[in-house]
Amino acid sequence: MASVELNGAAIAGWDTFHEECKRAFGFPDTYGNTMDAWVDCLSYLRDEDGMTRFRLNPNEVLEVVVKDAAQMKERAPDLLEEMTFCVAGINERYEDYGEKPALKLVLR
């Protein structure tokens, strides 16, 4: 299983969240630093669009590990809630296209 780690201790709000995600996922320079852009980039993990540094096989899942999630939740609780909501929506999008879910969120 492919895995990516986000440093929750480095995330204090939206700006640092997007900086950390751009670094960890390898989002393109054109990444818009919004949750809409985050969802868009992670909706193409099995395509050759180059929206992340990951290219998953048809049944492969990307494990998104948020290290020090408790610190992130303490400083930005709405952000972690939004991230969880968006992961569910992205997986639903994959299922709508007849594919298996592509993301697994792990809080450590």
Task: Set down the secondary structure blueprint.
Layout (H helix, E strand, L loop, with lengths): L1 E6 L6 H12 L9 H8 L19 E6 L1 H7 L1 H20 L6 E5 L1
Parallel strand pairs: 1-2, 2-3
List keywords for this structure.
Barnase, Chain D, 108 residues, 4 helices, globular, alpha/beta, 44% helix, 3-stranded parallel β-sheet, 16% strand
Description:
This protein is an alpha/beta fold and 108 residues long. The chain has one domain (2-107): Barnase, Chain D, CATH 3.30.370.10. 44% of the residues lie in helices and 16% in strands. It contains four helices and three strands, in the order βααβααβ. The protein has helices spanning 14-25, 35-42, 69-75, 77-96, and strands at residues 2-7, 62-67, 103-107. A three-stranded parallel sheet has the order 1-2-3, covered by helices on one side. The chain is globular and about 35 Å long. The relative contact order is 0.22.
Short description:
The protein has helices at 14-25, 35-42, 69-75, 77-96; strands at residues 2-7, 62-67, 103-107. It is α/β, with parallel strands linked by helices and 108 residues long.
